[in-house]
Specification:
Layout: H1 11-22, E1 29-37, E2 46-54, H2 58-67, E3 71-74, E4 77-84, H3 88-100, E5 107-114, E6 120-126, E7 130-134, E8 144-148, H4 149-156, E9 165-168, E10 178-180
Parallel strand pairs: 2-4, 6-9
Antiparallel strand pairs: 1-2, 3-4, 5-6, 5-10, 7-8
Amino acid sequence: MEPLPTKLGTPWSIDVARIRALFAGDPEVTVTDDIIDDNASEAYETTYTCTVSVANNPIKAMAIGAILVKQFTYGKVKLDVVVADNRDSDCANLKFFEAAFNGNPNFVKSIVGVDTFGHLWPYVVMDKTIAQYKANDTSDFYGNRNEVMAGLTKELTRAAELGLLVCTYDPSYQPEITVSTDSNSDQ
């Protein structure tokens, strides 16, 4: 009697193989499972991470990030599924800012910049406006405080938590390559 030629795999490695099979043949998508988090938590003894990378296609990255199951659990072991780089969820979060600031003259646009390595960086671009408000600021004769609109946006919103960068609009800067997420990208 011959031994079976198959080797039994762990449930999480099988789910990674299933995700790999789902995107097999797509040249823009790569699936890896190279990150293991050995930091035990109260709920899980081990956490494995499956990374789905999408190359230079933020719309596809957003879509894959929206449709994939984010976590599988197997008793005290979990597998987190992350759509990596290309700022999938970060790019999607730009849409929240666009909706929240729609019609606000202080909001210029949202844009996704591409660096020399092909990584995408989502930005919320605010106007070069100074906000002045009463703040009991004793260093100002009238008790006012003055801040750049981008600074207020950074401090008062969850932009950093959502993976977004906030900057001040500079009409003189023309980047080499950008992928805009809004329809008014010519501003």
